[in-house]
Amino acid sequence: MKFTLVFTETAKETLKELKHSKNLQKRYKAVEKSLRYLSENPKHPSLQTHKYASIAGPKGEEVFEAYAQQDTPASYRIFFFYGPQNRSITIIAVTPYP
Question: Could you give the strand order of the β-sheet that contains 88-96, starting from the edge strand earlier in sequence?
């Protein structure tokens, strides 16, 4: 069963910037692929999903990190939590890893 992805304004803006930047098309495609995997199976092995303890969701939800890229300088990561509805995932941020 698929999950519905819900995006914060911050995540929407980042995706928009990635999509429209000619220099970041490869990264955008990697993020899009990872978002597809996330909606189909949040525990897909290539995502390497794990709990991210440094932050919590707006109502104290556990936040998770998924990899959009690996072994690349400034690899992109997707931060999310489950909810607010059943079978939904809220994408908090899509950001390059320092």
Answer: 4-7, 88-96, 76-82, 62-67, 50-56
The enclosing H or E element of 95 equals strand 88-96
Residue given tokens 């999509």 in the structure block: 19
DSSP string of 35-92? HHHHHH-TT-GGG--EEEEEEE-TTS-EEEEEES--SSTT-EEEEEEE-SSTTEEEEE
Is pTM beyond 0.90 here? yes
- Which CATH number fits the domain 4-95, given the four candidates 3.30.420.10, 3.40.309.10, 3.30.540.10, 3.30.2310.20? 3.30.2310.20
DSSP-assigned beta bridge partners for residue 51: 64
Give the chain's residues under pLDDT 70.
Answer: 98
**Encoded tokens for 38:** 């996330």
